[in-house]
Amino acid sequence: MRPLSYTQIATYQSCPLLYRLQYIDGLKPKEKGYFSFGSVLHLCAEYFFRVKVPPPPSLNELLDYYQQSWLSEGYQSAEEEENYQAYGREILIGFWRIHSADFRMPLAIEKMFYIDIDGIKLRGFIDRVDKLDSGGLSIVDYKSNQELFPSEYLRSNLQLTLYQLAAEQLWYLPVEKLTLYHLRSNTPCSCQPRQGSQLEEARRLVVEVAENIAGNRFPAVENQYCPCDFPEHCPYYRHQYMGNSIDSDRQAALSRIPEADLVERYVSLQAEIKELECQLEEVRQMIVDFCQNEGLSRVFGREHAVTYKLVEKTGFSEDMVRALLEPEGLWGEVLSFDQSRLRHLITGDKLAEDIRQQLKALRQVISTYPRLFPKKLTDEE
Ligand code: SF4
Asked: Which CATH class is domain 6-214?
């Protein structure tokens, strides 16, 4: 099997079908301005720290390098590109001020790694590794995301966990600090290194993803970024493109597909049923109230009558039944396997970690049934 990277693992986790389309079928994602922008900022951060001896490049050198490295791909308009370019200069001026003031030579820049995780090859590049005064390592990954990273996100970020695994294998030194560097605000968002159980969990995840890929398991899984760049290959979106050119207007395209009418009819029937159920419950409650207030057991309409009864529900006390059946060796006869209690047990804190993992590994599909999930489309969709 080909080596996996963090990006591939993250793509598989978000949608296995997207992984297949990109990394097996070789479809190319559309170019996007913010990707080009992020790549250029990465290059500049690398350029700044990749010096043989201090000092680092001057601000003019850094800005010249930025200009030469600029990537124009993916911007919606010349104006958008210009705005991004000016914004990038501001970011780099801040970056230069902060890091030239306390410049220290990093241990490694864009460090390529290629490690083995339980037989699976994992490869990647770590943006920057610093050696701390304590002798331990600090890992920095540059990000051009819009928002800062909350601490919970940092604590569970898989990329940092995998980079810690890689760095400790490469240098045989403990990682003491993990950082996602938020370029847009020049803010290092740092957290503590991972402990044994989290590293173990990440190793298991890498193996699990590799096994799923080897087993050709590529279901489409909808997520917050849908539709991706390949909706015409996705079972959730392909219908909009059936028999029509991708560029045709959606409404016009759908008007030629008979199933589009079925969808609208299904949704409107569901709404009617819901409304009728509300009305039914309201009327039922009025009749019950009337019978209770008037002490009646039956009320008459013009063609029908409705009888009111308090229906009793009987059952057994578990303790009493158990006390009777257990001595007879029959208690097991009335117990049955309870899936929801098992799920509760797995997510609770009563289980030892290895038993929890073994139980999780036993999870499998035991039946399937068709179900429909309607939703209102937004203009964008
Ligand atoms: S649009 Fe389909 S293939 Fe693309 S990410 Fe969403 S579910 Fe996966």
From this structure: alpha beta
What does the pLDDT look like over 244-278, one tens digit per residue?
554 556 666 666 667 888 899 999 999 999 999 99
Q: Assess whether the C-beta atom of 220 lies below 6 angstroms from ligand 1.
A: yes
Strand partners, 343: none
19 CA to middle of ligand 1, Å? 10
User: pTM of the full predicted structure?
Assistant: 0.78
* Structure-derived torsion over alpha carbons of residues 226, 227, 230, 231, reported in degrees to the nearest 10: 130
Residue nearest to atom 1 of ligand 1 (CA): 227
Ligand 1 pocket, 17 CB below 6 A?
Answer: yes
